[in-house]
Amino acid sequence: MGLHIKGCNCSKGHKNRMVKLFVQLNGGLGNQLFQYAIGRALALRNNVELVLDIVGGFTRDFQYKRKYELGRFSSLEFDIATRWQQAVPVCYRIKNKLWMNNSCFYQGYLFVDFYVEKKFIFHQALASRVITRNTWLLGYWQSPKYFTLYAALLRRELMPQHPVGDNYGALAALMLQSDSVALGIRLYEESRNPGDHALTGKLKTAVEINGAVDKLRKLKPQGRFFVFCTHRAPELAKLNLPHNTIFVTPDDGYTDSVSSLWLLTRCKHHIFTNSSFYWWGAWLSHAVHNPEEQLIFAADNFINVDGLCEHWGTF
Question: What pLDDT, in 10s, does the model give residues 101-118?
Answer without folding.
Answer: 677 899 999 899 999 999
